[in-house]
Write a structure and sequence with these properties.
The structure is a homodimer.
Chain A (H helix, E strand, L loop, with lengths): L10 H13 L4 E8 L9 E2 L3 H9 L5 H9 L8 H8 L6 E4 L5 E2 L6 E6 H6 L1 H24 L4 E4 L8 H13 L4 E2 L2 H7 L9 H5 L4 H11 L5 E3 L5 H11 L5 E4 L4 H14 L6 E4 L5 H9 L6 E4 L1 H4 L9 E11 L2 E4 L14 E7 L5 E8 L8 E3 L2 E5 L2 E2 L6 H12 L4 H4 L9 E3 L1 H12 L7
């Protein structure tokens, strides 16, 4: 679980809570998390981060030290002590509906819906967004990289360029969900059970007087697991030396130069030297485009190590997921649908559900967003289910392996065009008529100008 | 301090350690951290993350659980138990020289130099890179945003789009170093003493039947600190209502629409309504370019709230800092300079120092990289100093306020052209002749091909 203090939130969440508390307002409220539009180069998203976020929510509480800090802030100078007393007992006890982690989702779709007393629902916004935005962004990038590799293994190597150590962990986790087979991040293995993988570094080779000494030493330490880095001095020379270093070489890594040409030459050398089972691992600022190009050129690369580009989703490094109030229970049984009317940021009121329709062959045809209260449309599958009730998960967390398997199976139900790197396919997402009606009702009820 | 388990490292660091251990190799080694080239749109970097990294190093150790996990990995099947026993006593006890946190630095310059037994120096690579790459990247972005604001306040609002909660914290910290005046991240205030700031959200306005009720409620709770969000329904209408909500309005926030035009109209309304001291805060996917444009159009915005673009360094979201072995003590008193020779990745051997030359008026003129053993050139300032010895800091950590003040003063010594958003100024960084000689010596000593 990511380590999250309850104060890792925006100040305004806490000031709004204090203002609500002062008014005695704490109506049951519904917020929805969605992404307004797809980032550049993305034709779909892989929803990720859910289980991490739920785990944080189950444990959310204020320590005395944290409350003391809040009380010391000038902003809170006029806030009554009873508010800070109330924080001592704060727990998230709401209900959450969400898409499955690993699900294929699109812009405008409700991905997660929180219904809780207003103060609880408000406070958790920042954490939910930062965990889910980041994880979904990386998983969506990883899905592209994995697609580009056409069945060859992709491993995640990016912690050193991730946005801090925790981002490295979340990147490893999200990449695995979307089909990477392993990560170099050892803590990600320890914490999440992701297979950990690695080769060796240039510094290792350089620490020995001769390259062959380095190779022999490493192979002796890891008789079945030695993947040797061969580009420190001369790649082809390195390939010969690596092949001779041990009778059963696991593999070699190329980290510079023309990877297509070098991998072909290295493959020949390894085969000639009696190492037909040795794998070729390639790295060096790889991304989905470069991988596709390498495979197009026939590069006999078995494993792609992808770092910076994957762990930062470099071409689309920020996912603009938002969390918006859509309904509030003003009085028992009286739910008011709400929306804001800011230019360029259309929103739709009301708690919603998301349905997916499939062809007879099981291919995803289109999605439909409805109000949650509407009857499920025939022949469709509801994508949001209740994952937390009274602040507790409704079921045990799936394993990361299960999430990965689910994600793979769901993505396979979409047309191949959607998964192409330059896809311009616009998967159809519709809204029910009732949502548009609800929007009109909410707009009509909206405060008018004074004149 | 960021929470970092010692396992948040790449597997190969640990496998290489095991192989060295097996050979009985643990020579004193020197690694240097540097950035090969500046990212797009950057004419300089603000070095950041140092004090966080040092704090992690002081506490680095393996728990029994972590060692058990390592021992369970298939890779380590043939590694002797004595290695895992040795890990129990692992501490970082090396020496570190580094630039001051907040320093203006450039591509190719040594920013941090580690001299330690090889096993220690190797293990810490991943953590050092992920903390310093990320922090330096964000601080460098923030410096641009702060420059663009021409003295108006910039506050960091980006946690919800940062790469996870910890990245939000590191982004707040790095932004503050480069001149932001505050952050919305409450934990960043708690942990680092950064001023925390905030307004209110659309959901707050929408939770009340009327906008004016929301404004009055918030102003009553925060009599001197109410900055009201006025674009939920109609911005100009909102400005009137906000001005009437309290006799002494702190400010209003605009979060959509044409910010230049709206801010001018809102300023007039606030002044007419007797609120000349109320500040205008603007947000909505701002970055340095948009801020420069708004100021060019004469927008009377007092405070810029910058989120996504800042907390992810969106136009340049990955900094390619590397950590390379440059020297190794093969025998007592015999230091070997090393380098790798991979195509496209030139490296320079030997422990280095970085000097800065100033004009008589105190302006930075150029930098010079030398071997650490060279005499300090006359009239220059050494930028690397010893910050850690025997694994302990050589001095107390400066406060974040001190780091911010230092960064501001050092940046002010560079020409204005360097700080322009579209700067093409190439600040001169030279290498001493002795480094090129050492490179030649190392190349000559490099393992040759077999034939």
């Amino acid at each position: 679980m990511v380590q999250v203090s309850i104060l890792q939130t925006d100040l305004y969440q806490l000031t709004m809570m204090a203002a609500y508390f002062r008014e005695g307002m704490n109506p049951t409220s519904t917020f929805e998390l969605f992404v307004r539009k797809l980032p550049p180069n993305r034709s779909y998203l892989i929803f990720a981060g859910l289980e991490e976020a739920l785990e944080v929510l189950e444990d959310l509480h204020f320590s005395t030290k944290e409350i003391d800090y809040l009380q010391s802030l000038p902003s809170f100078a006029h806030i009554d002590k009873s508010f800070f007393e109330a924080l001592r007992n704060f727990r998230f006890e709401g209900e959450i509906w969400a898409a499955k982690e690993g699900e294929v989702v699109f812009a405008g779709e409700p991905l997660l819906r929180v219904t809780a007393p207003l103060l609880e629902a408000q406070l958790i916004e920042t954490m939910l967004l930062s965990v889910i935005n980041m994880s979904t962004m990386i998983a969506s990038k990883a899905a592209r990289v994995v697609s580009a590799a056409q069945g060859r293994d992709v491993v995640e190597f990016g912690t050193r360029r991730a946005h801090g150590p925790e981002a490295g962990l979340l990147a490893a986790r999200s990449s695995y969900i979307a089909g990477c087979v392993g990560t170099s991040n050892v803590e990600a293995g320890h914490r999440y059970g992701i297979p950990v993988v690695g080769t060796c570094a240039h510094s290792f080779i350089m620490s020995f007087a001769k390259e062959e000494d380095a190779f022999r030493s490493y192979a002796a330490a890891f008789p079945e697991h030695a993947t040797l880095l061969i580009d420190t001095y001369d790649t082809l020379q390195g390939a010969h030396l690596a092949a001779k270093a041990t009778p059963k070489l696991r593999g070699v890594r190329l980290d510079s130069g023309d990877l297509a040409t070098l991998s072909k030459k290295v493959r020949v050398i390894l085969d000639q030297e009696g190492q037909p089972d040795a794998k070729i691992v390639a790295s060096n600022d790889l991304n989905e485009e470069k991988i596709a190009q390498l495979l197009k050129e026939g590069a006999p690369i078995d494993i792609f190590g992808v770092g910076t580009e994957l762990a930062t989703s470099k071409d689309a490094p920020a996912l603009g997921g938002v969390y918006k109030l859509v309904a509030q229970e003003d009085a028992p049984g009286h739910v008011r649908y709400v929306l804001k009317n800011s230019p360029g940021k259309p929103s739709y009121p009301g708690a919603k559900q998301l349905y997916r329709f499939y062809s007879d062959e099981g291919h995803a045809k289109h999605d439909l967003i409805t109000l949650a209260e509407e009857h499920p449309p025939q022949g469709s599958e509801a994508l949001l289910s209740c994952v937390m009730r009274d602040g507790k998960r409704t079921r045990p967390a799936p394993t990361l392996q299960e999430i990965q398997a689910y994600s793979k199976s769901t993505l396979a139900r979409f047309p191949q065009e959607l998964r192409e790197l330059a896809s311009e396919l616009h998967y159809p997402v519709q809204r029910s008529a009732k949502i548009d009606e609800a929007r009109q009702v909410a707009l009509d009820a909206m405060p008018k100008s004074m004149d």
